[in-house]
Amino acid sequence: MLIGLCGSMLAGKQSVVAYLVDHAPECIAFTKAEELVDFITKRWQQRWVTTDIWDESVLEKLLRRPSFFLVSVDAPLSLRWQRCKRRCASDGQPSPSLAEFVARNDYHLYDQEVGLAPLIDRAEVRLVNRSDNLEQLHHTLEELDLTNEQRLRPDWDQYFMQLASLAAQRSNCMKRRVGSVLVREKRVISTGYNGTPRYLKNCNEGG
């Protein structure tokens, strides 16, 4: 399994990596996703994590691996600005004003060439780190259970329920969409969804 992390600056990605490394000994943190593409192909049964994915072409290569999924980490802008000021103070660097930080944030997310917003939009799991309380973050991560392998391959019940949910999208009922899957010994016999009888006008057509 490879967990990819992306998100806004100072959102807490390194804290998430630290949690995964501490609580899942098979996890190893990497800083360059490019170095993982070939590496994880040979070691897909082990657990790995990469802190940032900057390039959409790299993401495309990783997404072809069935053992990969992407997580975005975000936090409120004001909280991230406070973190930035504390980090600058500890490093002896001048702190940016709020306007300067907002400009950096916009560049980081929305620049046409290097902005991360398109990558974040493709994340399968979205984590919002709302405070500086590590205990609260760890509690959230524990509930998410990111290393649960069912995220990569659903169990039978999840599989059939997802099929039923997909079938429901075919319904044209204006009140409620309902899908169903008929299964015998883990084999799909048939799928269906609610609607008007055949040859009658559909609900969305005034039936």
How would you characterize this protein structure?
A five-stranded parallel β-sheet has the order 2-3-1-4-5. The mean pLDDT is 86. The protein has helices spanning 13-23, 36-42, 56-63, 77-91, 98-110, 117-120, 134-144, 156-168; strands spanning 2-7, 29-30, 48-50, 68-74, 125-128, 179-184, 187-193. The longest helix is centred in the middle third of the chain and has 15 residues, at 77-91. The radius of gyration is 22 Å and the shape is globular. 20% of the residues are buried. With 207 residues, the chain is of the alpha/beta class. It contains eight helices and seven strands. Helix 2 (36-42) links the parallel strand 2 and strand 3 (48-50).
| Average of the residue pLDDT scores | 86
Strand order of the largest sheet: 2-3-1-4-5
Our Rg estimate from Cα atoms comes to 22 Å
Low-confidence stretches: none
| Helix vs. strand class | alpha/beta
Identify the overall geometry. globular
Which bin fits the share of residues in helices? 25-40%
Largest sheet: 5 strands, parallel
Count of alpha/pi helices: 8
Listing every helix as H and every strand as E from the N terminus to the C terminus, the arrangement reads EHEHEHEHHHEHHEE
β-sheet strand percentage: 15-25%
Give the end-to-end Cα distance, rounded to a whole number of Å.
49 Å
Number of extended strands: 7
